[in-house]
Amino acid sequence: MIDFTEQLSKLTVATLKARLRAAGVHDLSLQRKHELAARLAHRLSSQLEPTAATVPRAIVALDVGYVHLAHATLLLPPAPQSLVGSSARLPSPPPPVLVDWRLHADHLPAEYLRAYDPVVTARRVRRAVDAALDGAAAVLLGEGGGGAGELVLLVERQSWRHGTAAAQPVVRAAAVEAMAVALASQRLEAAAGSAAVDGAVVGAVASVQPRAVAEHFRARGELSAAARGSYTGKKRDAVRLVGQWVERAAVMSAAGGGGDDGGSAEEPLRVAVASPALAGVFKGAQKRDDLSDALLLAVAWADWEAEAARQARQLVSSSDGEVERDEAVDKPKARPRKKKV
């Protein structure tokens, strides 16, 4: 694994944090400069592993709630070549493909909504996690011709704020989150132990803050900053954005265009759909906000992976070993203030 720590240590703390956030690392409050450089180096080095360019990958995002759960699965095509030792600029990759999108809405007994039952909750979470991972594994093994594939299961992290941490919905949702992480981790660890034998899908579990996802799309201008302070406004904005994505992707899919805009001057697709029927899943759902949150989480992770690969490639292509200014991420240096006379 290539170590970029020494190179990255020459950057400022502000620049290191900006690059880490752009690559999907957001928990930076207590990090010192050398720690930030080491963390960014590890993040970028992982993009240079040979397997990242040779096997199909899937992102499974699970939106967590104590009543409803939803998941979205994106398939990422393998890179056309390894990044290691290559300085040639790769063409823009095709958009990730939405291959599975479901809302897990069981008919719950009235007593469940009044009193928390861990047994009922655990069974519901187990069914949702199994459905998400089984679907992703089937797609990956099919794409890889029966060989191994890699996936990451993203679980929406629950927020704990002073004054609301003891609220019943928050406690229940946190329990669902913990169950999902434990169940998925157990399955993926078991798969890793048998991967060498039967080509099983291997992967990892990650927890992502919804705030990081929202800020990512606001920074891109895709979500409105005006809806930041309103819970209902944020939900409606997310549904609007995702609805635009899937409607356009469904039109392209029905026309036989897949994820390729055929040289169109329009903006490239943010996500393609494996079938136009997936757009119907969204239109007919009662909880489109949960489906939207799951897809936004998956697409944000795909963006962060692509950005980390781009940063890694930029470092590899540097001929003199110096870290060049990255116009796409780095903030301009502040001009020194003139002293008043």
Task: Please explain how this structure is put together.
There is one protein chain. This protein is of the alpha/beta class and 341 residues long. It has ten helices and six strands; from the N terminus they run αααβββααβαβααβαα. The chain has helices at 5-8, 13-22, 33-45, 110-114, 118-143, 168-198, 210-219, 231-254, 277-283, 288-316; strands at 57-63, 69-76, 97-104, 150-156, 202-208, 272-273. It has a six-stranded mixed beta sheet. The chain starts with a helix and ends in a 25-residue tail after the last helix. The relative contact order is 0.17.
Provide tags for this entry.
6-stranded mixed beta sheet; 341 residues; 47% helix; alpha/beta
Strand neighbour order, sheet with most strands: 5-4-1-2-3-6
Largest sheet: 6 strands, mixed
Could you tell me the mean pLDDT?
Answer: 79
Strand count: 6
Order of helices and strands: HHHEEEHHEHEHHEHH
Helix content: 40-55%
Rg, nearest Å: 21 Å
Count of separate DSSP helical elements: 10
Category from helices, strands and their pairing? alpha/beta
Q: Rough shape? A: globular
- The low-confidence runs, each spanning 5 or more residues with pLDDT under 50, are 195-199, 260-265
Indicate the proportion of strand residues: 5-15%
| Spatial gap, N to C terminus | 54 Å
